[in-house]
Amino acid sequence: MNVSESTLATAIQHHQRGELQAAERIYREILVKEPLNSEAVHLLGVIAHQVGKHEVAVELLSKAVGINPNAPPYHCN
């Protein structure tokens, strides 16, 4: 079962507006349904970095790269 594009888009909109708690909640909801959704894992890592949880960020970003090593933004972050 794939998460709808609109659910991820909604989370990204929250993220872009700086509404990190709302974005994180939606990313986590996505991962309940799709534990290997690399974009949700990646963006959770970005949020972790933004709030100063750097060890968690490295863990999540590394996981995203492991899921989808062909996504250049994952490597950059």
**Amino-to-carboxy terminus distance:** 28 Å
SS summary, helix count? 5
Label the CATH architecture.
Answer: Alpha Horseshoe
- Which CATH class? Mainly Alpha
How would the global form be characterised?
Answer: globular
Average pLDDT value? 94
Based on helices, strands and strand pairing, what is the structural class?
mainly alpha
Rounded Rg:
11 Å
Per DSSP E runs of 2 or more residues, the count of β-strands stands at 0
The number of domains? 1
Low-confidence stretches: none
Largest sheet: none
Q: Into which percent range does the helicity of residues fall?
A: over 70%
Q: Which homologous superfamily in CATH is the superfamily?
A: Tetratricopeptide repeat domain
User: From N to C, what is the helix and strand string?
Assistant: HHHHH
CATH topology name, in short, is Serine Threonine Protein Phosphatase 5, Tetratricopeptide repeat
* Amount of beta strand: under 5%
This entry's quaternary arrangement is single chain
Task: Quickly describe the structure.
The protein is mainly alpha-helical and 77 residues long. It contains 5 helices and no strands.
Report what the structure shows:
The protein is mostly helical. Helix 3 (38-50) runs antiparallel to helix 4 (54-67). The chain has five helices and no strands. It has one domain (5-76): Tetratricopeptide repeat domain (Serine Threonine Protein Phosphatase 5, Tetratricopeptide repeat), CATH 1.25.40.10.
